[in-house]
Write a sequence for this structure.
């Protein structure tokens, strides 16, 4: 590119093309499942899990 052309038209810097990564929802669902069931150790999640268990077994 000549200097004169660069001065009149400008220089365009483009980033490298980004690699496409495929994301799967399995990891998120597994983490969510662990949180909902209280398996990760949080006291509030364990309490919520207990409430859900009671509600599920209420009409059995």
């Amino acid at each position: 590119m000549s200097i004169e052309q660069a001065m009149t038209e400008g220089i365009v810097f483009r980033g490298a093309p980004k690699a496409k990564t495929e994301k799967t929802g399995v990891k998120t669902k597994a983490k969510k499942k662990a949180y909902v069931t209280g398996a990760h150790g949080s006291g509030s999640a364990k309490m919520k899990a207990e409430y859900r268990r009671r509600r599920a077994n209420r009409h059995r």
Remarks:
- The helical segments are 3-9, 26-36, 43-56.
